[in-house]
Design goal:
CATH topology: Protocatechuate 4,5-dioxygenase, Chain B
Strand content: 15-25%
Structural class: alpha/beta
Shape: globular
CATH superfamily: LigB-like
Number of helices: 9
Largest sheet: 6 strands, mixed
Radius of gyration: 17 Å
Distance between the termini: 16 Å
Strand order of the largest sheet: 5-2-6-1-8-7
Number of domains: 1
């Protein structure tokens, strides 16, 4: 079992609403990354997405056979409400995850009504445009406790040996006022936070306990609350980190560029 191939885990920025699918100039670097990352991901039998855009009282797992589309954005051109991503769901894996979470002492729900939100369909439509691989989502936990999300990820570790790709879909910088009102300054607090995040996740000088401590106490990082006034776009990273496993090597920095003028990163555990 020591040499068993483990599926990679990817934390990525999904950009602003459907803008990556509109070739928005503020997303040029991100679009290029999303178009190129597939070679690192293999051919998974299923994809589980932890989306920043779904929160429930307990982890909830999408369990529809054919999830519908959930256009959870506002004010975009009419064609963005006609986007399709007809990938099948995976109810059997959803049930298996619920059973494993139960073993880990984590209560959870199955949700057969939830559709694919843009945290799933925007990046996957670029990375896996064929929409053939079964996809499903798991929610964040209301309260947004970082330790809970690391624990949730660790309960999902078993998926790595089942050729299931786990994608954390969020943004390592998510201050809406800064994006749309010119809030970024020459001091670049986004860069300060990004450097902390990359060091925390990618340095081989940190132990698991030290990495846990840093991520649990992320709000003490430089410019943390400026970059994340609310942390729902960061916590998919915590789930990914936990799912990589307690003895996983450091993450690899696979994207470090700008989205709408802010520095953002993508991380890969392989």
């Amino acid at each position: 079992m020591q040499n068993q191939k483990l599926s990679p885990i990817l934390y990525l920025p999904h950009g602003g609403g459907p803008l990556p699918l509109l070739a928005d100039p503020g997303h040029t670097e991100l679009i290029s990354f999303l178009n190129s990352i597939r070679v690192n991901l293999g051919e998974p039998r299923a994809i589980l997405v932890v989306s920043a855009h779904w929160e429930e009282a307990v982890p909830s797992i999408q369990s529809a056979e054919r999830p519908e589309m959930l256009y959870d954005y506002y004010g975009f051109p009419p064609e963005t409400y006609q986007i399709t991503y007809p990938a099948p769901g995976h109810p059997e894996l959803a049930e298996q995850i619920q059973a494993e979470l139960w073993k880990a002492g984590i209560k959870s729900n199955l949700n057969p009504e939830r559709g694919f939100d843009h945290g799933l369909f925007v990046p996957l439509k670029i990375i896996f445009p064929e929409a053939r691989i079964p996809c499903f989502q798991i929610s964040l936990i209301q309260g947004l406790d970082p330790a809970q999300h690391i624990a949730l990820g660790r309960a999902l570790y078993f998926l790595r040996s089942q050729n299931v790709l786990i994608v954390g879909s969020g943004m390592s910088f998510h201050n809406m006022q800064a994006f749309f009102r010119g809030g970024l300054t020459d001091k670049r607090p986004d860069v300060d936070f990004d450097q902390w995040l990359v060091k925390t996740c990618c340095s081989d000088l940190l132990s698991t306990a030290e990495r846990d401590h840093e991520l649990i106490n992320w709000s003490q990082a430089p410019a943390a609350r400026y970059c994340h006034p609310r942390e729902e776009h960061l916590l998919p990273l915590h789930v990914c980190y936990g799912a990589a496993g307690s003895n996983a090597p450091p993450a690899e920095l696979v994207f470090n560029g700008e989205v709408l003028g802010a520095r953002v990163s993508a991380l890969l555990w392989s």
